[in-house]
Write a structure and sequence with these properties.
With about 425 residues, this protein is α/β, with parallel strands linked by helices. About 45% of the residues lie in helices and about 15% in strands. It has a 6-stranded parallel β-sheet with strand order 5-8-9-10-11-12. A 4-stranded parallel β-sheet has the order 1-2-3-4, with helices on both faces. Strands 6-7 form a two-stranded antiparallel sheet. Helix 2 links the parallel strand 2 and strand 3.
Length: about 425
């Protein structure tokens, strides 16, 4: 049995291991959590650290030799070549069970944010698949009849800009030749805003939204956490440029940096009130195992425990800000952020700045069902119904894709 995942999924990983024990089945665990915290999975036969490409024989040998004690297969010092990654067995998945399907184009990120474990697990030199590889994966999904949203799960889709600029025209042509069956979304760094050609190519290829790690409007905190790529741009202007190009921005934000005081909550609120970011995802700073932040806090004697990945728990280290003030300020910020008026105001701002997108895919049958259920649950039964209909009226004049996104935002809110 092979399983694995993130820290937040550790409990269910252990449940899988426990279910395999009565059948005397050896269990291999892999992925980010076992890679960064192998000691948490001593109940598995094999703890596989790092990436699997080029190491199948090593894994097979370990399974053949496994005993009652757990064996840790440490990650090599070099990273595998992404051009050797095979097409995933999408045919083994019932795609009708999923609201979105995922593909991966690259691994790694060139930046050095202190709190990030991506650069520790995948390195700072982004590795990519060839355009032909990506097309093969899209073809495999398309042949299975799936239509709808597709997530490029890269931690930074534009980590290798020159390579992604070669990929995007291929995606555009593939989409057009098949009637634009997919609506793409991904994650990227904020320097995307500085490249109009890249923005235009992404929209032409069928990308509709992007998750961006914005973190904080505090220049001091950005410098402290070494997120220098966000210091070199005006945050509001960058978000505006990405949105006006036709990409909706989902934003990641953090409170609880060492330089943060109680004024940071008002600063975040003032910043977010004017942004076209319906899905503003705010979390308290977490020290993930193996990160530069983890190492620094360990040296300072401030670590409490290993995080379980839950954003809605106390910090796993001693914060500089008084902890009750941090938790209270975070709770108040979240309450305001997702209050109906504040949330729908950001949805309206998103519609105003994005405008109409001419090329878009057709709606699927399941999406029509979602629309009807949303009209009933949010447009009729919900106390938010007045705000909902104001948003829908505006979205209807902006085209099919904007209406689809507005419905999704209403449900998510």
């Amino acid at each position: 049995v092979l399983t694995g995942g993130l820290l937040i999924q550790s409990e269910s990983i252990h449940e899988v291991i426990a279910r395999a024990v009565p059948f005397r089945l050896p269990v291999v665990v892999g992925g980010p959590a076992p890679t960064a915290s192998p000691d948490l999975f001593s109940d598995a036969a094999v703890v596989f650290q790092g990436e699997v490409e080029g190491r199948i024989d090593e894994l097979a040998h370990a399974l053949a030799q496994h005993s009652s004690s757990s064996l840790i297969l440490e990650a090599p010092t070099s990273f595998p070549d992404m051009t050797n990654v095979p097409v995933p067995r999408f045919d083994l998945v019932d795609l009708s069970k999923y609201v979105s399907v995922s593909v991966q184009y690259s691994r790694g990120c060139p930046f050095k944010c202190e709190f990030c474990d991506v650069i520790e697990i995948f390195g700072r030199k982004p590795r990519v698949k060839t355009p032909a590889q990506v097309v093969k994966e899209l073809e495999a999904i398309h042949r299975l009849g799936y239509r709808g949203t597709l997530f490029f799960v890269d931690d930074n889709f534009i980590g290798n800009k020159s390579a992604v600029k070669d990929l995007l025209p291929v995606l555009r042509d593939w989409q057009r030749a098949r009637g634009r069956p997919f609506e793409f979304y991904t994650e990227a760094s904020l320097n995307l805003a500085n490249d109009p050609q890249l923005l235009g190519d992404m929209v032409a290829a069928g990308f509709s939204s992007v998750f961006v790690g914005i973190e904080t409007p505090s220049q001091k905190a950005l410098a402290e956490t070494k997120k220098f790529q966000n210091l070199s741009v005006d945050l509001s202007d960058a978000i505006d440029r990405i949105t006006r190009a036709g990409l909706g921005v989902m934003g990641g934000f953090i409170v609880g940096f060492d330089s943060d005081d109680e004024e940071v909550f008002a600063l975040q609120r003032e910043f977010l009130a004017d942004q076209p970011i319906p899905l503003a995802m705010v979390g308290i700073l977490t020290a993930l195992p193996g990160t530069a932040l983890w190492r620094r806090l360990a040296t300072e004697g401030r670590l409490r425990e290993r995080s379980d990945g839950d954003q809605f728990s106390r910090p796993n280290f001693v914060p500089v800000m008084e902890e009750r003030a941090l938790l209270r300020g975070y709770a108040d910020l979240m309450q305001w952020l997702y209050s109906p008026q504040a949330y729908y105001s950001r949805c309206q701002a998103h519609l105003d700045r994005t405008g109409s997108i001419s090329e878009t895919r057709s709606s699927t049958r399941s999406e029509v069902g979602v629309l009807l259920r949303t009209i009933w649950h949010v447009g009729v039964l919900s106390p938010r119904r007045r705000l909902f209909w104001q948003l829908m009226v505006k979205a209807m004049s902006r085209g099919r894709r904007q209406l689809r996104q507005a419905v999704a935002h209403a449900v998510q809110g």
